[in-house]
Structures are given as C-alpha cells and as structure tokens.
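thought: user wants a sequence for this fold. calling inverse folding tool.
action: design(structure=
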C-alpha cells in the first residue's frame, strides 16, 4: 500500500458525533474540533458545512451533530481511512458495537478519483445516497459533485431523497 497517489485528490468527508467526550466537549464541539483536525498536514481543508442536528440510526437514543468537509491530500484512499481512524481514536472513538453512540465518526463519502473498492473500504460510501444527514451538509459545500455511480449531482440526490414518496395503498379491494 502506498502513502500517496500521483497528484492531489479531493475527498468529501462525512462527520458525526452523538456522545460527549469526558473533557466536556459535546457532539457539536467535537465536530468542530474534528474539522480543525482535518486542516493539518497531510490534509488541507477546502470547505466545511454547518452542523446539523439529526435523529440517530439504529438503537442509539442520542441525537447526532453532523457536518461535511472537503479536504485535499496526496494520500491514497486506504491511507486516508487509516489517518481518519487515528483522528477518531484521538477523540475517544471506541469500536465495539455497530450503531452504538460514538464520540466521533469520520467517513470517506466521495473521492475525486471516482470509485475505490477493497475489503475494508468502498468509495463512494455505500449508503450515502439514502442519508439526509450526509447529503444535506454535503450539498451545502459540493452541490455539483457527481456521484460516480449514478452520475447525479449531490444536490439532485438530496432533492430526490427529500421528495415525498407516493404511498402504496395496495391493490384496490373492489
């Protein structure tokens, strides 16, 4: 695995937190601190969204603070993933149960290189198209970025997700 790929790449990063850190930082402050951490070499912060409060997925009852950031780096996707996990660990992230409360979650959503897939990493993020807490902040900073799979812009994906879906009342009983 190499540490760099030719030239610089841009990555869209999803950021979330729903568990305070012992040092008194709440989820919103943790998201802000994580965004600051994304602006240190070998990463360079290009843009950040505001923070939105969202309901949790799964069994957790704590609300999330979510945001998105665009970063630039020469790191390959697997090396960036390892770097993001190091940042999560510095902020008290413990990986013991899926869908549990967490101090910090940093996900690679998109990559300017297009598609990446191996056993530990899939870009674009496998579920980002179904998650408003990813699409809403991302559409604020990268509305014209195209999903390399569906070829739709982030703005279009966000609109599609928010659009009311028809209700299926089943077959007419008469």
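)
observation: tool returned 174 residues.
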């Amino acid at each position: 695995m190499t540490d760099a790929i030719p030239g610089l790449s841009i990555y869209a990063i999803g950021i979330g937190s729903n568990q305070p850190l012992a040092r008194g930082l709440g989820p919103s402050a943790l998201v802000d601190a994580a965004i600051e951490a994304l602006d240190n070499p070998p990463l360079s912060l290009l843009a950040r969204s505001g923070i939105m409060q969202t309901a949790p997925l799964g069994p957790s009852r704590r609300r999330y603070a979510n945001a998105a950031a665009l970063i630039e780096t020469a790191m390959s996707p697997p090396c960036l993933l390892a770097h993001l996990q190091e940042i999560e660990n510095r902020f008290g992230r413990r990986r013991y149960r899926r869908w549990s409360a967490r101090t910090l979650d940093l996900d690679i959503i998109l990559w300017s290189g297009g598609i990446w897939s191996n056993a530990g990493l899939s870009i674009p993020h496998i579920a980002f198209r179904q998650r408003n807490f990813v699409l809403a902040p991302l559409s604020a900073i990268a509305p014209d970025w195209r999903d390399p799979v569906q070829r739709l812009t982030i703005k279009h994906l966000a609109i599609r997700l928010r659009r009311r879906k028809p209700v299926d009342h089943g077959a007419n009983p008469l």
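thought: summarizing for user.
answer: Here is the designed sequence. Residues 116 and 122 are 6 Å apart (CA to CA).
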